[in-house]
UniProtKB/TrEMBL annotation:
Protein name: Glutamate racemase
Enzyme class: isomerase
Residues in coiled coil: none
InterPro entries attached to this UniProt entry: Asp/Glu/hydantoin_racemase (IPR015942), Asp/Glu_race (IPR001920), Asp/Glu_racemase_AS_1 (IPR018187), Asp/Glu_racemase_AS_2 (IPR033134), Glu_race (IPR004391)
One family name in Pfam for this protein: Asp_Glu_race
EC number: 5.1.1.3
Any GO molecular function: glutamate racemase activity
Assigned protein family: Belongs to the aspartate/glutamate racemases family.
Gene Ontology BP annotations: cell wall organization; peptidoglycan biosynthetic process; regulation of cell shape
Gene: yrpC
Entry keywords, A to Z: Cell shape, Cell wall biogenesis/degradation, Isomerase, Peptidoglycan synthesis
Keyword match NADP: no
Pathway assigned to this chain's UniProt record: Cell wall biogenesis; peptidoglycan biosynthesis
Amino acid sequence: MNNCYVYDKPIGFFDSGVGGLSVLKESIKILPNENYVYYGDSKNAPYGVKSAEEVKKLTFKAVQFLIDKGVKAIVIACNTATSVAIVSLRNKYTDIPIVGIEPALKPAVEINRKGKIIIMATPMTLSEKKFNILMNNYKDTNDIELLPCAGLVELIESGIIEGDKINFYLKQKVGKFINQDISSVVLGCTHYPFIKNELKNILPKYVPIIDGGYGTAKQLKRKLEENKILNSCSTKGYIHIYNSLKKNNIIDLSYKLINY
């Protein structure tokens, strides 16, 4: 990559909707002086119930959108899209760093607590080969419980991140584990951190809730350093948000979630 004038170009973030904003928030904490362009494909959300081929096609389209915006690096802030498309993306776009995300199973294992590691994710993420390779590294020595959460992304996409509806959904999903030993809960979809507070109200207070946003932000910083394209400005960067729905309410929700 030509480093001339690259440092002040924006970093592109992509998700199937508003979920990747949870990863963007972590990146802003670590890299506040960077500029960001975020693209959410809420028109086609959720990705977690689509075919792998359809997810791949949509992901490539979104990445091209970001490249056309002149980004210097890309974060696939979607577990499903990462599982399906990250290898192919890196094979095609060889001159730009592309960072993906995956369920934070390793940090959950390293906590080394007694009980089940519950992984909440979309059906697609849990069925993909990439995740199963990751899980196979730990399943013989850890009690891993897969918890597909169809329908949760749709609630969050509509702006429902707290209240009775979310509370009822989560109780239906995790309620059966409440009286069991729980090592931790892994949020394996970038939408899910936005309902973490509601989840805390249901789970025992001692249960750690883990997501991959912070680790992804740290990896992004490492890649920028390796490529010598960190922004050297001392002022806070800008954030531009785009969405395939092209409606004001989804943009308004996106900025609200950034500050949530």
